[in-house]
Amino acid sequence: xxxxxxxxxxxxxxxxxxxxxxxxxxxxxxxxxxxxxxxxxxxxxxxxxxxxxxxxxxxxxxxxxxxxxxxxxxxxxxxxxxxxxxxxxxxxxxxxxxxxxxxxxxxxxxxxxxxxxxxxxxxxxxxxxxxxxxxxxxxxxxxxxxxxxxxxxxxxxxxxxxxxxxxxxxxxxxxxxxxxxxxxxxxxxxxxxxxxxxxxxxxxxxxxxxxxxxxxxxxxxxxxxxxxxxxxxxxxxxxxxxxxxxxxxxxxxxxxxxxxxxxxxxxxxxxxxxxxxxxxxxxxxxxxxxxxxxxxxxxxxxxxxxxxxxxxxxxxxxxxxxxxxxxxxxxxxxxxx
Length: 337
What we know:
By secondary structure, the protein is of the alpha/beta class. Among the domains are: 103-261, Rossmann fold (3-Layer(aba) Sandwich), CATH 3.40.50; 265-337. It contains 15 helices and eleven strands. The chain has a five-stranded parallel beta sheet. Strands 3-4 form a two-stranded antiparallel sheet. β7 and β8 form a beta hairpin. 30% of the residues are buried.
């Protein structure tokens, strides 16, 4: 039997070596090679399409709430424990309905509505104007050029990009809204209700622009045209708001959302989840780890990606010391061990 230390690449011996080349391929959900579009991003989160089994599909209530949000053009508020599959749901809808790459807006305590709509780099514009002024040494005709250049300093955020007029909706994931400042949920109300917003920096100069239009960059880095300084959607985006349940939201926001509570997956669904990412053999040989994970999750807060990490590492890299390594990787999230 091989020693547990044989799988170690870094051994802490202080001697340089090139054995990093012996690392196995990365786990599918951490493989970023060539990842540049929505398909690669979805595969990392959902697993390989051909491996997705019936048990991995959403339940009846989940499907009904998702479709209710699609029919009603309302945001879907998804709550549940970490690792319950809240953000994965957005990628699943985007892939199946061919809505393109998911626009993700991660929320933290400092996040404001403007962060999601657009960013205007006033400092960069001022610097460029000063440089141009010195170069021109008082030359005329700078006013019109200056107005037309404003759009070059504006980049739409994920929410702003989702609201661009198009025939097919985009999927917008507003992740962990419960981490936000107390004002953000209320600030979102008008934009999500009306499906439009203004860019004052462009509104003020619209009469000096050709046809009132300016080119800006969207969140994907593509150049898009804004008319009259306003963005108004044609197809309302599929908006997924996720929350770990750390706070309550105001009634006006709840009234405008379809609410879906995700429970923890059962054994069959966890096995299908493992199969989608690591294959059928990995799911079959990890029945004991899945059972242990479920037993512990009844009294501890755990996330399904911890289970995936444990199965991958103990099978692909460290087949010995399996139980000990799995225990190290599957640690409760609600309090330190």
